[in-house]
Amino acid sequence: MSADAQFDSALDLLRRLSPLHTSLNLTRITTLLPDLTEDLLSSVDQPLSTRRCPKSHRDYLLCDYNRDGDSYRSPWSNEFDPPVEDATYPSERVRKLEVAANEAFEVYRELYYEGGVGSTYFWDLDDGFAGVVLLKKSVAPGSKSSGAWDSIHVFEATDRARTAHYKLTSTVILHLGTGNESLGDLNLSGNMTRQIEADYPVDNDASHVANVGRLVEDMELKMRNLLQEVYFGKAKDVIGDLRSIPSLTETSKEKASHRDMISSMGR
To answer: How far apart are CA 177 and CA 187, in angstroms?
Structure first.
């Protein structure tokens, strides 16, 4: 089997397995196919992990965009942990934008998530720059329920005359779990990806941070509403039809009464 066929098969397999165990399944696949490690890590979105910056003592999120080998760059200190020789860093201009974006999205995270962890990373492109905005909120340990929300927003900004063209790809990875004696165990996991392109005016570099913030805010609102109204609503209907707390006798009586009422109204 060719390398391309193995890569396509690995992606197809990961799409069919539970998103809750994406990291574990990805590790198992790369153990069997080590030559595909870099391609799979850069192509598959997985739940975000947290690490503490040894210099600033602040938490930051790990992803493929701040990784160099086995080291990760902190957005707070701009240093890799563990240190890496000849590592790639953003230019001075892009680093200033990265710092400003981290400050802005810290406010966004507190307002919308009321906790959690957030990190923003920028890097240079030939005709502009690109970046990723990461947000994570998990249920506090020790709770009877489990849950995590991971947002991954990757964007490209292409500079033009007085405007900039932005291309945003957003992925949300959601996991919810609960259980009790009457209902048993429930696990709901999944991910969603959406894309958008837009042009916004740019007066200075600070405009880029505001424009990216607007794109991310609008996209998260749309995806959150879509999850709540479509996916959760559909899952509720399916689970309600498959499993009910009242006995079958009571359910049958209610359906019979409902049919009698409908038939009497039609007379």
So the answer is: 4
